[in-house]
Amino acid sequence: MNDHISLDKVKGSTLGLAIGDALGYPVEFMRLEQITKKFGKVTDFESASGLDKGSISDDTQMTLAVTYGIIDSGENYSLDNIMKNVSKRFVEDRKSVV
Fold it and tell me: What is d(CA 33, CA 77) in angstroms, rounded to the nearest whole number?
């Protein structure tokens, strides 16, 4: 088994997650009928909750905090170290959006 993960794959999957989140954020928790009535068909970025078009939700923010927390842990993959770094990223992200 290969334990090496390609950085390109991590970047690509994270970018794909953020794009999907930004497309889906304005219609989150809406029923298909509500989406169709408001937007027709979602084919572009829309504004969500008064935010700019293409804004990401807390789902992407949490994913980024976890991803960077793991990266910040370097070779020390202990649960305590990873959680310390993930928590630090959550606090930093929270301060940047307040």
Answer: 46
Residues across the chain: 98
Extract the tokens encoding 2: 């290969």
* Dist. CA 64–CA 27, nearest whole Å: 22
- Threshold 0.85, pTM exceeds: no
Torsion of CA 70, 4, 57, 32, to 10 degrees: -150
pLDDT digits (tens, 9 = 90+) for 39-52: 988 889 999 888 99
Q: How far is CA 81 from CA 70, 71, 92, 97, in A?
A: 9, 11, 17, 25
Tokens of 42: 């979602």
Distance, CA of 46 to CA of 66 (rounded, Å):
26
